[in-house]
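Good morning,

Both structures are done.
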Amino acid sequence: MPLPPVFYHYFRTPLPYTRTLLLQEKIHQLQLAARRSSSHHDILLLLEHRPVYTSGRRQTEQELHAERARLTSIGAEFSIAARGGQLTYHGPGQLVGYPLLDLARTSPPIGIRDYICIMQKMIQSYLLRTHEITHVPSDNTGVFLDPVTKIASIGVQVRHRLTTHGFAMNVTKEPLEWFAQVVACGLVDVKAGCITEAKGKNVRVEDVVPGIVDAFGTSYGRDMVKLCPQNAGELGEAILALEEDALAAGGWLKAPSPT
């Protein structure tokens, strides 16, 4: 029996991080409730965030207190997330993908390691086929252009075999200066790279969305269907409300403020 399609939605305005976490949690609860009748949908959210530093679930508030104060002083938000991984940055110029999938749809179910491995290979395949950008192998999760340049990160959470969080891929140069303020993902001597820098020509986030959607569908063996929020019930209402919040939030800093 073929797997149902994955419904995807691309937000064109950078989103506040905390509100986006709430949307993921709402979708997770909707999926849990509808799974009893096998009527739940798998979703892929594609977006940019407003400037924000996030930490993983293994880092404590006590450990991060000084960093929170420093990083908010340069103009970014700060949030502790429930994903794996350590401190990282999200912001405009970076495409973030949040797949909300039921890993139990297949028989046997997809394991967490396999799920992450497929995601990493999906990004690598997209970069090579669309931009002729090659990666180098690494013992660390994510996609590296060379041993000290990382272009994409992965951090996921799985509860009841339902996924949240996902991947982030740097497209423009805008995120790089923000990344330079921290030791991202705990990797000393590793810097952030981006598609624009690797290609030597400007690439916009909206330019990469169609290719990532296609690569995602191919990698996970799923048809991809564009979501129409107006016809998606409670899920669609939540998406439209978040888009309104993003527009109301106004502009954002393009670079860190001097301290």
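Second structure follows.
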Amino acid sequence: MAVFFTATLLAMTSPLMAFDLGQSTRCVPIPSQMKVCQDVGYSEMRLPNFLGHSSLEGEVVPRSEDWRPLLQTGCHPQAQAFLCSLIAPVCLDTFIQPCHSLCVAVRDSCAPVLACQGHAWPDALNCDRFPPQEDMCLSPHPKFTHFAKDLPKPACQNCPSVVESPAFKTVLDALCQHDFAVTAKLYRRRLLMGEPEFEVEGRVEFIRQGPLLPYDTQHLLQQWLLINLPCAHALVRPGRAQLYLLTGAVQYDASLALTHLFPWHKKDINIAVATRKWKHHRC
């Protein structure tokens, strides 16, 4: 996952020829190995697809799997529907493309994630190629139009500082100066097919809750790791899960920014004392 579906992006950097809606197509079952489009609400797709792929095994399946890392970040709730409408278009009496408005919504949320990996939004997904919403096309779902705008969300950022064996005052100052502080075990696994490389293992414990929501924080940190892959590779070592004290802030636009990571080893008495005394400390 160090290379964020580079093969797909390289293949899509030049604009594709317009898809010919009059060309002959055929309906085929969505292959079971095409995991990214297994739960989209239909079981048959058209070939060639809207990206010009005509071979299931040679093009469609491998290219679809290249999109999995982006979808795992949760960059937009309809990102899967948008991408699958192109790589595995539903087999109906008429062609159903994504609407221009759906493309714009997904692009505006997911292009910053690609930029965080050093990639631009692919030319082949230029939203101007898709029909307006008044045509028969896949439109944004109303409930996602303003999805979770006020809730904290992960975003691309400069890598936070890692402080090994911190002083007692350093930890207390970090707890005082930032919106939240949590402890979490971060794990970097050896990649298996389709699995995310980074994971938040077990429960997330609050030292200072701030604006974070208890039911959402583990997922929030997981998304942060998948979006900020260059930082995650630099911060999290492979092997066993490591416990960290993490501090951060929630910005004016509700984006979450991590500021410090304190690896918490058994020998780090200062972290243990600081987090225990924090409840009675006056900043």
